[in-house]
Amino acid sequence: MPGIGTRPKDDIVQSHLAANLGDRADWDLVLRESHHRMKNTLTLLGASVRRDLTRARPGEVSAAVDRFERRLVAFGRLYQFLSNDEGRPAVSVATFFEALCGAVSEAILEPAGIRCEAAIEDGMLPASQCHRLALMLTELITNAAKHAFPTRNDALIRIDVLQRDGCWLCTVTDNGIGATGPLQGTGSRILEGLARSIQARMHGETGQDGTRVTIAMSALAD
């Protein structure tokens, strides 16, 4: 999409991950860290609700409570996507990720005043792969929502899930200020472990027009 991430300045993922590609991923640890990150997101949701209620005039409290209820429902849907992949067969990529994008937008992006666009092609993937890709996309979206837009009012995050040349390409793009360095901390450990678990590769670039991170995974991967 023109105007978003069109001036790469630095590879923010590949060089950082390369040093750890030989490490063995502890999937249980990755999953615990992912759930911990979702709890942090719930804390952010609570903060936005408190802000709404503090600013609401007496006649606006009911509307603020209604917004809170909708966000809780959306967060519940999102958490269900990210915490339950047991016993499910292959799923429709379009159905799964369209629903995920809707839940992420309503639970995380809309309260922060960030628009969401999505382009998702259909196909079939094992539910476990969709689940882990969803964890990765949500981590990238949450990171962008928290850090990419300190001032601007036209904030936009775009999610693309496309199949090209035997690979699934899942991309999160923002039109924010651009990352100042490689992904670090708990978020990077989550992404590293999840990428290894589905034999995916990641590439990121950032510049004054925003940041783009792409996850590439073989369409034939188990």
Keywords:
6 helices; two-stranded antiparallel ribbon; five-stranded mixed sheet; 19% strand; disordered N terminus; 222 residues; alpha+beta; Heat Shock Protein 90
| Pattern of helices and strands | HHHEHEEHEEHEE
CATH-defined topology: Heat Shock Protein 90
> Can you give the helix content as a percent range?
40-55%
Number of strands: 7
> C-alpha Rg, in Å?
17 Å
Strand content: 15-25%
| Class from secondary-structure proportions | alpha+beta
What low-confidence regions span 5 or more consecutive residues with pLDDT below 50? 1-10, 14-25
Strand order across the largest sheet = 2-4-5-7-6
Tell me the overall shape.
Answer: globular
Total DSSP helices: 6
Largest sheet: number of strands, sense, barrel closure: 5 strands, mixed
User: Which quaternary structure do these chains form?
Assistant: single chain
CA distance, first residue to last residue: 31 Å
The CATH homologous superfamily: Histidine kinase-like ATPase, C-terminal domain
Number of domains: 1
Mean pLDDT: 78
Domain Histidine kinase/HSP90-like ATPase: 132-207
EC number: 2.7.13.3
Keywords: ATP-binding, Kinase, Nucleotide-binding, Phosphoprotein, Transferase
GO molecular function: ATP binding; protein histidine kinase activity
